[in-house]
Amino acid sequence: MKKSIRCGGHSNGWTPDDHNLFLKARSKCCDIDELCSYLHTILPDISEDEIRVHEKWYLKYLELREKQKHAIKIWRKAKSATAPRNKLKETAIKRVTSAYNPMKAFNKQEIKEKLDKWRQEKLEKSQQRKMLNDEMEKRKKETEQKNKQKHKEVKKTIENWKLAKLEKEEVQLYEKHFMEKQQRLFKSAMANRLIKEFQSQDAVFVKRRIESCNPRIKSIERYPNTVNVVRDPSRVLKPTKQWISRVKSREGSYNSSSTTIKTIQKLRVPEWRKNGGISR
């Protein structure tokens, strides 16, 4: 029965609605042929062969269910027959257990002595356990105190190391800045000295160059920038001292009447201007 239900359930794989229609049609029809034709018209998706197979399964299912019911009846009868025997057995066991009391076999004095001894042992064990716990707590506190002290010492050492390192870095930084400043000052001093030397060398070189190019040039006397001269418009037509000396050196004598700006020759008039216009 269980195997049949496990394979197809209580409907052999059919849906509950189709199986219920099958049961209703089976109660109405007389034989299997009428059942197949009637059910096939209602359920056209199910063939007549499938309906016949389902009918065979249902007959076997009913047979197995009847056997199951019969087996259950037999089991219930057997159980009802063995129930009084079990009750008698249980009552006998209760009587025996109630009649036998193991505490009656011992004397009260012995029991008291054993209890006192057990209590004493328990008390001693508890005291020993307490002493052991106290000792462990004491050692634990000492260890924690040592660890704290060690931690403080390590922390102090680290702080001192950090301070020393910071001071060392500051000293190194100060020395670095001081050296850089000294180097800059030295370089600037060297640059100024070299510039002056180069300038003096340039001046000497220029002087030598001038002397090599014009050895006869004498040193020119410097005159003051301001000259006090009386305003004389006719001075424009007068010759300069340099001009007079040049004329004397060239002609031997100087004639003031022949050497004025008015006596200077003009440009020649071209031929095409002589007639008053352009000749074509």
Automatic annotation (TrEMBL):
Keyword Coiled coil applies: yes
Bias (Basic and acidic residues) ranges: 126-147
Annotated stretches, region: Disordered: 126-154
Superkingdom of origin: Eukaryota
Keywords from the named record: Coiled coil
Annotated protein name in UniProt: Coiled-coil domain-containing protein
